[in-house]
Amino acid sequence: MAVRHLAVSAHTVRRLWPADRNAVLDYFLRLDPEARANRFMGNVSEAGVRAYAAQALTAEGVMYGAFVDGDLRGLAELRPMETGSSPYILGPRAEAAFAVERAFRRQGIGAALFARIARAARHRGVVDLHVRCLSGNGPMLRLAAKHGAALQRAGTETEGALHLARPTPFSLWYESIAEAFDFTLAVSFPSRERVTA
């Protein structure tokens, strides 16, 4: 079946907050079966998606979304690989996960999400950023390679690692401004919600 690619003129990437919970659920439920399997590293039921979405925004780490015309069309997650992190310091190793709706791919959304996650990781104490995906997930493999991740295939999965530079005083200041701006965007232009819990 041919997938129609939409012309995306602009997208906004911002941090997601607990108030975005329904938009996150709506997003995961909209993913086609292949995209959902790629995101969750295997098949997951609607009940599993609902359970994951219910806790995703309050779990350790941070999430960022790409919005097109007020709808969440791409999502990136940054999760610590060790327990005991805080919202501000995730520890030396963290894992990133990405998904972009099929009709909105090849519009720069994945690259913008990857750059935002890498920047957030760098400013939360992460030295090594890891990505893991199914070996057949071409979009994710291309995205990781484009950003300099060293990729290693192990059976049906591929893992990539990206060593991050240490933050500078200016980059820390810039990140704090970006976070404040993200919050202002979330309050001023809340995401559309279609799903009832």
TrEMBL record:
GO terms for molecular function: acyltransferase activity. Keywords: Acyltransferase, Transferase. Pfam families: Acetyltransf_1 (PF00583). Residues 11-179 form the N-acetyltransferase domain. Its EC number is 2.3.1.-. InterPro entries: Acyl_CoA_acyltransferase (IPR016181), GNAT_dom (IPR000182). Gene3D superfamilies: 3.40.630.30. This is GNAT family N-acetyltransferase. It comes from Methylobacterium brachiatum.
